Automatic annotation (TrEMBL):
EC number: 2.7.13.3
Keywords per UniProt: ATP-binding, Kinase, Nucleotide-binding, Phosphoprotein, Transferase, Two-component regulatory system
Histidine kinase domain sequence ranges: 334-549
InterPro entries: GAF, GAF-like_dom_sf, HATPase_C_sf, HATPase_dom, His_kinase_dom, HisK_dim/P_dom, HisK_dim/P_sf, PAS-assoc_C
Family matches, as PROSITE patterns: HIS_KIN, PAC
PANTHER family on file: SENSOR HISTIDINE KINASE, TWO-COMPONENT SENSOR PPRA
Name the record gives this protein: histidine kinase
Originating organism: Desulforamulus aquiferis
Length: 549
């Protein structure tokens, strides 16, 4: 009886009704929470499923398979911005607009241009959707009654649109639109990552193809002499199959320990590129070392570019020999005259000894003349043969002053017969250098003969001074051989051309234009150079600069 009265009172006061509304509200909230959780799970799963190497079509297909679990969906599309156009890039189901620019009258352009999300319904409500532009919108051809359009944003820039559609009206409200916005944000990140990945992959592929296409061997070597990478072009340098990350001295130079004067150490110490010419098992190599610097300015590795120049050096050697033959031809007359006088003395003295001299004759001193002149002839002939002989290109300890004396003995007559005085100023404390003596002689002969030719038209005193000294050049201690003349000099307009092959100011019968070009090549092969100072009408000074190593 009491319970019945209590129920009647609760019904009259609305207590039961409030409890029912409360439970219904809790139930609705739980359902909303479950929907949100389900949507988050879908977004999370989609992001896991999408790979950065997927195409746009694959991404749309992967999203479309999951999306109906979260929102009503029978259409999903991507419109991407390309060169001031909006192009339908991918869609499920496909339609005739794929790959075509979206007309600027479309509501899609409104969402893109204003960077705002929009709801579109065929029978629209003002507060939910935008009005159609003039004319027929392409969306109306897709059989959709409700469409949610959300911009894809990357760094505050619209890169495209995500389009979700359904074949019933008013399928989306702000809740669904918010979820689609969250999905679009994640897709934008995935699309941008895929774009960046493709750019990086393309750049990496182009670099690797370029790296492999270079015909010369290239090596990346770390501080521990380990070869980190190479372009598989070193087969001609070594026939051994390299192990993983071999040491450079093992792979290239067939050594068990690092080289005594390793160029890599020099690169790490100076931080500058270095060039060396190296002889290895009969092969002549140009080696270029380039430092690799990290963002902190520290050198972490060195690129070694090796070029086989054996054939080039052989051709240069042939060119040098050709120039030698020209010089020998000019020296032939001088050698004949140079040998004529001492030989006459030798023959005349010998005849007089045969006719008049006895063992106790006081004229026994004439033997000294015979011996002296004979030795002089022998020296001249030996130097001439040595100069004309095909020399080896190995470097040995060389005394520069001795090379100057040998050259002067060869061409002394050619210069003196033109009434030219030769002055020597040789530093007797000059250090020995690593050089090829025959090639040094070739350079000196070319410089002296050029000085002789420059004095040909002088009417007054004719003078050539050859000197040796030690001085600093570009921060390096060097031996300098100077050939100075007081000839006609060189015009400043032509001074930069004199080392060009086949350039000459002489008559066609007096020069080939190869002497200074060949001489500069020899100097550079020794790590040195040739420098010219000249004033028109005053004279010229050529400095043959060789590093002391």
């Amino acid at each position: 009886m009491f319970g019945d009265k209590l129920n009647i009172i609760q019904n009259l006061t609305g207590v039961n009704s409030s409890k029912l509304n409360y439970y219904l509200e809790v139930q609705r909230s739980n359902e909303q929470i479950k929907i949100q959780i389900n949507r988050l799970e879908i977004i999370h799963q989609l992001i896991k499923d999408i790979n950065i190497d997927m195409s746009f079509s694959d991404i749309v297909e992967r999203v479309y398979n999951k999306l109906p679990q979260a929102v009503p969906c029978c259409f999903l599309g991507l419109a991407m911005a390309k060169a001031n156009q909006l192009v339908m890039t991918a869609a499920i189901p496909g339609n005739s607009n794929l790959g075509q620019p979206v007309p600027r009258t479309s509501v899609l352009w409104q969402a893109y241009a204003k960077c705002q999300r929009l709801l579109y319904n065929l029978n629209y409500r003002e507060e939910l959707v935008c009005k159609l532009n003039e004319g027929r919108d392409p969306l109306e051809n897709w059989g959709l009654r409700s469409v949610a359009i959300v911009p894809l944003m990357v760094r505050n820039e619209v890169i495209g649109l995500l389009i979700v559609g359904y074949d019933q009206e008013f399928a989306y409200d702000n809740s669904e639109l918010t979820f689609i916005q969250q999905l679009a944000d994640q897709l934008a990140i995935c699309i941008e990552n895929a774009r960046l990945y493709k750019e990086v992959s393309k750049g990496k592929q182009e670099w690797e193809e370029t790296f492999k296409a270079v015909p010369d061997p290239i090596f990346l070597i770390d501080k521990n002499f380990s070869v980190l990478r190479h372009n598989q072009r070193h087969i001609s340098l070594t026939t051994e199959k390299p192990k993983e990350n071999p040491k450079c001295y093992e792979l290239l130079w067939k050594r068990s320990i690092p080289c005594e004067y390793c160029t890599l150490d020099e690169v790490h110490m100076t931080g500058k590129a270095v060039y060396r010419q190296i002889q290895n098992d009969g092969v002549i190599l140009d080696a270029f070392y380039y430092p690799m610097v990290d963002p902190n300015g520290e050198i972490y590795a060195v690129i070694l570019h090796v070029k086989d120049v054996t054939e080039k050096v052989k051709m240069e050697a042939q060119l040098v020999n050709s120039a030698k033959l020209v010089a020998i031809g000019e020296m032939a007359a001088g050698v004949a005259h140079e040998l004529n006088s001492p030989m006459t003395v030798m023959i005349g003295t010998a005849q007089m000894m045969q006719r008049d001299m006895g063992k106790d004759d006081l004229r026994f001193e004439w033997l000294d003349d015979i011996i002296g002149c004979g030795m002089r002839c022998k020296k001249i002939i030996q130097n001439l043969l040595s100069f004309s002989r095909q020399g080896q290109f190995s470097l040995t300890e060389t005394n520069v002053n001795e090379q100057v004396d040998k050259v002067l003995s060869l061409i002394h007559y050619q210069i003196n017969r033109n009434n030219i005085a030769i002055n020597k100023d040789l530093d007797q404390d000059i250090p020995v250098i690593m050089a090829n003596g025959h090639q040094l002689q070739q350079v000196l002969i070319n410089l002296l003969l050029n000085a002789r030719d420059a004095l040909e038209e002088n009417l007054g005193e004719k003078r050539i001074t050859i000197s040796t000294s030690v001085a600093q050049h570009q921060g390096e201690k060097c031996v300098i051989i100077s050939v100075d003349d007081n000839g006609q000099g060189i015009d400043q307009e032509n001074i930069n051309k004199i080392f060009n092959p086949f350039y000459t100011s002489k008559e066609a019968s007096k020069g080939t234009g190869l002497g200074l070009s060949v001489s500069l090549g020899i100097a550079q092969s020794h790590g040195g150079t040739i420098h010219c100072d000249s004033q028109l009408g005053i004279g010229s000074t050529f400095k043959f600069i060789l590093p002391i190593k």
